[in-house]
Please model this.
Amino acid sequence: MNCEFKLPDEILFGCGERHKLVSKLPAGNVLVVAGRHSKERVESELLPELKGREVRIVADVRPEPPLEDVERVLAAGREIHAANVIGWGGGSAIDTAKSAAALLPLDGSVADYFYGRGKIPGKGCFFAALPTTSGTGAEITPNAVLLDPETGIKQSLRHDTMFADTAIVDPELTYDCPPGVTAASGFDALTQAIESFLSKKATPSSEALALKAALSIHPALLPAVRSSSIPERIAMAEGSMLAAMAFTQSSLGAVHGIGHPLGSLLHVPHGVCCAVLLPELLRWNLPACREKMAFLARMLIRDTPEALIAALEELRRAAGLPADFRGYGLREEHFDFIVKNCRSGSMRSNPRDFSDPEVAAILRGVAG
Ligand SMILES: [Fe+2]
Model:
């Protein structure tokens, strides 16, 4: 099988690896996009090491980053002629930093590139990514998921040159991640591992990474939510990184295809979308990939695919996540928008194809 294997230029994994960040940065000013909870650490740990450079820290990017937040970050970077961009936080902070790093040398608005009116010609600024949640894998991927709140469109800004120059996955940064975020981002990571493993575009290398990712994440997720125990936090960080290395090669599946328009329309956190949709869509996919799901189920729980789906529903309940979208008000009137906007690359790599009425039937099943 022919395949390409693309990753960030450099990935550092391990406790304390974040202290190598400054040694990696080329000369020049620094724009930092920090998560709300990371600002303090960035100021106390990073800022003293950047003496002699002009530094701007932006720490109020909203979740599912809207275009205007990215525009604001871009303006802050242009003001100081930033040569380096650091994303230090959850997926939103990293995706915003990734977009700013790509667009800083260019003219035009973020919307121009989001809607394809402008083309990214090549490499932007030096970009470093440090995740503080174990979930999105944004530190590994060459795309940034952004939202235009005016149109409700949530899609990726993507270019091969948007891979991080250095991705630093330091599990210590996840130790104080709150239980609700740990649960939702953990389900995102688990979904990414499973969808990558089952993807039509899976390759031998992506399958190996996805399987190891699922094996790390599945047993660690609940202990990490409940007790924040350190070995489980390390396993989650490792699993999330491996899942992202896998799906960067293989793409994802219908949980992400349907989850993106649904989440943007009803403001459902991405990991919650994954948790609700994953069991339902594994049930749908089972006839198309029984053999692979049987293997995955044997590896994860030494049981059948049906038992794995039930185990994931139980894990979701125990992690305190909802089983449907009742609390978010999903109704029949929303289905048209979701059906129309779900036909992304993720949907095309799903093991089983859908007609529009079949997508609507899935939505009916999770509306609650
Ligand atoms: Fe995801």
In short: Residues 178-366 form a domain with the Dehydroquinate synthase-like, alpha domain fold (CATH 1.20.1090.10). The chain has two domains: 11-173, 178-366. The chain has a mean pLDDT of 96. DSSP finds 15 helices and eight strands in the chain.
